[in-house]
Amino acid sequence: MVIATATQDGVRVAHGPATRQGARRVAGEASIEDQEALDLAADWSDISQGLRKDLGQQLHTQWIKPIQLGCFCKETGTLDLFLPTEFSANWVADRFADRLSLAWKIARQEVRQVRITVHPRRRALPELQIGARPAALVTMESSAAALNSRGIADSLSAGLDPSLTFAEFVTGTANVLACNAAQRMGAEAVPQFSPLYLKASTGQGKTHLLHAIGHAFAAARPGARIFYCSAERFMIEFVQAMRQNEMLEFKARLRGFDLLLVDDIQFIIGKASTQEELLHTIDALLAVGKRLVVAADRAPQALDGVEQRLLSRLSMGLVADIQPADIELRRQILEHRLARFNASQVPADVIEFLARTINRNVRELVGGLNKLIAYAQLTGQPVSLQLAEEQLTDILSANRRRITIDEIQRTVCQFYRVDRTEMASKRRARAVVRPRQVAMYLAKVLTPRSYPEIGRKFGGRDHSTVIHAVRLIEDLRTRDADMDGDVRSLLRQLES
């Protein structure tokens, strides 16, 4: 039996078995829809990762990563994929539609057609956050609420990665200048220099510092408007604004930010009109005391095809160089990352092996550690040197640079200022013997050569002489700070 009652506002509420069954049915339908949405998101994550491997990091970040999942119609088998602008939607549809369609058909047989469009309720250009991180589709109301939020929420709407903060950035001699300059730029106090130009090769941390500046500035100045984008994305939005006759809105929006962060400025090469607009934007921001940070993989003077006036603006503040991480910094980074895991799971010799071997960039170093730990956890195997060599073959082979004994001898002779012939001579003067022993030690540490092979390279000496030299230098490093410093310096030179 169903009992109906009247509420104070006149709304009639039904109670009884039929109502409860209806409620359960509605809840069941909602849970099914939620599960289907989760399954679609999981499939898209797998497809996206596969495309990243096929297309490369740059193309994936620029065109595939911004794709947002739309609705899937079971009756027609049509899946909607949305992009933030007409330009990007047309570009992806022209170049990647077949790849995306095939990938989805393999992942889900019921998907018969993939439709790539702009979301019908996309935000107007003045509100569009260039370079924003992809997320689930949101309504216009939730978008407006996110844009109106303050502090950290503002930084997220500007496309900042919440994990890339100063607290997660490990400093060493290679990056301390850039990190200190970045912290000044993100602080509440007015920095002594602007713009800040961060120069570093791929994977050394310049993008991390850009995001960290944004987070720090959002915390120091709640409500500040922060804008992060790549130079390539800047160009795309610039072209779109021109085509849609919205240049005034584009300029006003761009110059209304309190902090402008532009990554990979080298990709703006050769685009005269875009360079001109960026030049005027820099002048407008600096004229009213706003902040600008740019990052590139080369110095301003090495940017080919960039107008001299723009080069002058980019160089007028501080150019902070991030050098490749030396072995000490690589060790610190690995130890910092291990704080997220059970450090006892990773033996010290594995950390030392990774720090010495994966030396091209920090991104590969951290990725290698994450992959090793994940594999060990998922398979139940203990982390070991053998497991590292088996599972990180691609990363290790790409990072290994063959250091020769001849190169070691030449570097040691230059360091200690002795003649190269002394490496093979029979002289036993201390000024000659000690550099020779150091060279033997480094040859054993940095090359796969056996003791007899090393001995032959040092004037045909017996393998026992090499063993004595290696053990002596190992002992001296623990007791003599000067000797340890010499060896560390030589290791940095040889591994750089």
TrEMBL record:
Gene3D superfamilies: 1.10.1750.10, 1.10.8.60, 3.30.300.180, P-loop containing nucleotide triphosphate hydrolases. Its main location: cytoplasm. Signal peptide: none annotated. Residues 404-473 form the Chromosomal replication initiator DnaA C-terminal domain. ATP binds at G203, G205, K206, T207. Residues 192-340 form the AAA+ ATPase domain. PROSITE patterns: DNAA. Keywords: ATP-binding, Cytoplasm, DNA replication, DNA-binding, Lipid-binding, Nucleotide-binding. Residues 1-117 are annotated as: Domain I, interacts with DnaA modulators. It is found in: Cytoplasm. Domain I is involved in oligomerization and binding regulators, domain II is flexibile and of varying length in different bacteria, domain III forms the AAA+ region, while domain IV binds dsDNA. Plays an essential role in the initiation and regulation of chromosomal replication. ATP-DnaA binds to the origin of replication (oriC) to initiate formation of the DNA replication initiation complex once per cell cycle. Binds the DnaA box (a 9 base pair repeat at the origin) and separates the double-stranded (ds)DNA. Forms a right-handed helical filament on oriC DNA; dsDNA binds to the exterior of the filament while single-stranded (ss)DNA is stabiized in the filament's interior. Belongs to the DnaA family. Oligomerizes as a right-handed, spiral filament on DNA at oriC. PANTHER family: CHROMOSOMAL REPLICATION INITIATOR PROTEIN DNAA (PTHR30050:SF2). This is Chromosomal replication initiator protein DnaA.
